[in-house]
Amino acid sequence: MNPAAPRLRPSRRQLVLLLLIAALYVAAVEWLCGWRRLSEAWSTLPWRLVLAFVAAMLASYALRAWRLYLGARDVLPAGSYGTTLRLLWLHNAANLLLPARLGEFTLPWMLGRRFKVAWAHGGGLLVWLRVLDLHCVAALALAALALRLRHLLGPAWLAMAVAVAALPLAFYLLRAPLAARLAARPRWRDALRAVPQGVPALLRDLALTWLAWLLKLAVFAAVLHALAGVPAAVALLGAIGGDASTLLPLHAPAGAGTFEAGVLVGLGDGLSGDALRAAITLHLLLLGSALGGALLALPELPVLMQGHDAAAH
To answer: What is residue 234's predicted lDDT score, i.e. its pLDDT?
Structure first.
């Protein structure tokens, strides 16, 4: 049985470090987007939509953390879901703020520091999560495009949809033969452990992925629909375009410019004033939710910096 999750009992040194980190956090928000501009972005929306945005983002983070916790429960301590959620918040903020997807590497690093998870296994978990995310986002993009361009689509589009839908299944089916072939290579074996071993676990991961992404993209689309006045399918394409821009190697720090460009490409509305304003507002809301999650996760940083041994005391 896995040991209980280590409890956070900060020492005086950790408290000082946490205060310094909090001060840097305040300065970083001001430098990235400005506290005034961030508050103005939230105040431009109806309060019901703001509440829906916050609730949907929190639920999306919670579902993705649950997916990671269940997928790695053979190496994570029992009862460590709360810690897993905080690590995911930090990983999400690092991914959004750092350029060229450099923030991805923080997840296996944090799992290793907090729970002594091997780099190979942590990297395998990250790859599997991204395969699930790519499958879901690409399938939703194909569906939205099908609604928008149904008269232009042919058999090739159906083949693409089938290929995207089968991506996680392909990883699942290849897991056993690859594990047998790579049995003499422990690092590859550890990485492959991240792929579910049974159909129930595969279906669980798929269900959690779809729920998390549908919540997130639906509320993104609602914001774009409210601010730009575009149809629902077009708003969904804009939401997917903005989120997909964060996956690109050319992703700018904090997504400055690249996120808005992705939204505008998805909307297909050029540089019209309403579309650009909606894209900028959505970006600021996304930054606010990511930075808010990082704020809630700040107590983890001193523990991560001192490693697993310090966390256990």
So the answer is: 86
